[in-house]
Amino acid sequence: MSRNLIISVLKILAAEPGIxxxxxxxxxxxxxxxxxxxxxEFKIVNSTVINWLGRCSVKYSYIDGKNITVIELQKSIxxxxxxxxxxxxxxxxxxxxxxxxxxxxxxxxxxxKRPKEHDExxxxxxxxxxxxxxxxxxxxxxxxxxxxxxxxxxxxxxQPFKDKYGATKAIRPSREQKQEIARRIIEEKAHVLKxxxxxxxxxxxxxxxxxxxxxxxxxxxxxxxxxYASKNVDDLFKRxx
Length: 241
Description:
Layout: H1 3-14, H2 19-33, E1 41-45, E2 54-61, E3 66-74, H3 81-98, H4 120-133, E4 154-161, E5 164-170, H5 175-187, E6 191-195, E7 213-214, H6 218-229
Parallel strand pairs: 1-3
Antiparallel strand pairs: 2-3, 4-5, 4-6, 5-7
Helix pairs in contact: 2-3, 3-4
């Protein structure tokens, strides 16, 4: 890739809506907890299915010949200030772990000696942040309470299980997935719906001989029961061979 093309790409990223605000929030967190860490680069992504809210990585810059830390955030969380702040704080701990100034904590590239992402150093910094922002503000995983705006429809497969309902999902069902959906409709009394509901965006993908998610939360079980009894799209899959 040419130097001019790389510069053009970076200019496009810098112009992305929300980048300047992300930098402002991140700088406030850095000033409070990581005074020796440089402000990372930021990238906003728009995934069809959200399996993560933010992630941190190190990439080599051909422009200035050094490693740069890049934090990616899902576009769907930008409308919720608290979720953005929590996610940025989480990822900035990883940026601190990447930082060469941290010596032994530096995650050296191309080595098998990289520590676990959420090691004792991560929890040490998370505890410091939680002392300021509140209990469990920063955890090793994104909380279910985080606000997600799912903009693309997906299929949710709901099936009765004992006194509850189980759920799986499919984005663009493969032939094998369609066959499994058809089998569950016939053999396990499953129903299929097309939804955008963010509650189930992390439900496991359906697969042959696979299981399903059972939610313990009573409100979610009530929601599943309502969906199961509502208008479904079973006929899309009943004729799959």
